[in-house]
Amino acid sequence: MTSTGGGPATDSAELDAVVAETVRRTGASIGALYLLAPDERLLHLDAMCGVGAELAAPWETVSLATPAPVTDAVRDDRLVWVGSQEEMVRSYPRTAMAFPYPFALVAAPVAGIRRWGSLVLMWPATRPPYMTGRERANIASSCRRVARALEEAADRGSPLVPGGGARVVPAGTGRPSTSPESAVADFVERLPGGSCALDLEGRFTFLTAGACELLGVDAGRLLGTLPWQSLRWLDDPTYEDRYRAAVISRAPVAFTACRPPDHWLEFHLYPDASGISVRIVSTSEEPPPARVHRSTRTAAPTRAGRLYQLTHLAAALTEVVGVQDVIDLVADQIMPAFGARGLVLSAAEGGRLRITGHRGYSAETVERLDGLPLDTTLTPAGRALSTGIPAFFADREEMRRVYPQAPQISGAHAWAFLPLIISGRPVGCCVLSYDHPHEFPAEERAVMTSLAGLIAQALDRARLYDTKHELARGLQQALLPRTLPEIDGLAVAARYMPATRGMDIGGDFYDLIRLGDTAAAAVIGDVQGHNVAAAALMGQVRTAVRAHAALGATPDQVLAETNRLLADFGPDLFTSCLYARLDFARRSMTLASAGHPPPLLRLPGGDTRPVAVPPGPLLGIIPDTVFPVTEIALVPGMILAFYTDGLVERPGVDLDDSITDLARHLARADDQDLDLDLLIDDLVSEAGTTGQRADDIALLLLQHRAGTR
């Protein structure tokens, strides 16, 4: 966090005190404060307590779209409690992969006059797997104090701006390990004797003579260093991961490693809030394979944090569906993970690079870059794609030496060009750009290159999905009525809403058919499934119903003939259907149902109830079936609601109760100046189907207008 006015130390002092006090008062082992960026798209880690900032470096920036406790707390304005590692796996599998350690966690929103961010607290897994009301109240109170501190800084003209890096806030428990003497004191308290001590950043703060002898290095060369950096034989993510497990879980951890050439050592880690005591003992036998990890690589290994970050982002890429989902994920999560400020995602089409998505670039720049040939020399994108070799440029001068015009096009100061290739086939190119010069360490290049392969696969799948999706949607739109006929004496409104999962299509349909000057027919149906087969069968059912209705068949005859036709086809999908014939001359309506939910009838004045229509079997199952018929009177001002089960089916709720709830919502409609389209909006909203939908929905409203017949 930085300040636009006073110094960061002054402006953050009260904030740090509140965070540290909250950690102490709740008994948490780790605390973290995330602040919302001004555009409210990202959360930036501002302060850490009880652990070193390096541990959370890969997650310093989190997209608000990421499914995680810290983001849910901000988005939903609620306290999120995760009591165990098992619960984390069930509720937040991507977070569980990023932090595969036993612990309990709470994320609480920090809000005052506006949303500020989220406060995260973590405990060892040994604490009870629940929160008391008192604990919740204490955390909520602390969040309000954090919000007040942020608001007071803004009132002083020194608003605290997130994104300047995370501070480490002392928890105030124990003695800080700032010298060998204090480290010895902490070490003695934790273990009867000892070997060495690490601070929460993982650096050596104290070593005994015996430890130096076992490690084979003098204390002067080890103090202040990280074990996996100063001892090459510990330079492996497996060993760093053991340290991370101890810090996060606050539980003892042990592992075995081989000091070349054949000296096996056992390391026992004992953590607390001030650091880690490490007991090192020599063992004469090589441990079983499961307890040791040898590395034969010569290149520097990737840090454990980066590996978990890669796993987290890889899991996210497996969840994307369409091309836009890939673009949003790369922009919202992968860009912030590497500190990039610009993105261009191109697809290889017809020998050219077509830009499918971008962030941080002007429309003029995108227009100039769009459609470049694959062999372009204007930017490195074409060469990276043709050779399959990523290109990294740390500054403008490095780029200018090879591609003189490229720096002027985008105005960026550093670039990473990542070719997207699958089995030797070019799919596209991902370009990350930076506002300032940026070195690309070997570790970061390795992670970026690995992600490029995952992005390529996700993009290829997404393009195939989008193609199938457009085909299916086009088929469905062609089969649904474009407009409904105007019928004297009848006001009509209809709505189709596809499922938000799968192909976003389905077999639900509706129709309104003119039957001469004094009659009309209303139809609604539901073909099982949400795919092309369901949409195709829906078209056959609708066509059959229309054909028999035009011949003047009664409702039971229409369903019987359609059922016979479908039985001959032998479809694998079931179909429900409700057919109603409105006779304005006789002022009556006749209905027949093939396993469809009953329509709702609302009389003038508000009396609303389901119409008792005895349902026959679903269409296409039994060839010769008789469908019962129900007749009701047509009353001026009455409203009929025909719907499919996607509007009323909810997990854990009885279907009859859902239909009763829908009838209650319909009863509240205003008789004066009633707009049926607005009424549909209200019914859909009240039913809770405006967000994620597992099923598609069709809804048809009819109102018999008085004085027109």
Descriptive keywords:
7-stranded mixed β-sheet; 6-stranded antiparallel β-sheet; 31 strands; 36% helix
What is the count of helical runs?
Answer: 21
The N- to C-terminal Cα distance equals 72 Å
Largest sheet: 7 strands, mixed
- The structure class reads alpha+beta
* Strand elements, count: 31
Give unreliable regions as ranges.
Answer: 1-10, 173-177, 289-302
**Mean pLDDT value:** 82
Can you give the helix content as a percent range?
25-40%
What would you call the shape? Answer: elongated
If you compute it from the alpha carbons, what radius of gyration comes out, rounded to the nearest whole angstrom?
Answer: 33 Å
Q: What percentage of the residues does DSSP assign to strands (E)?
A: 25-35%
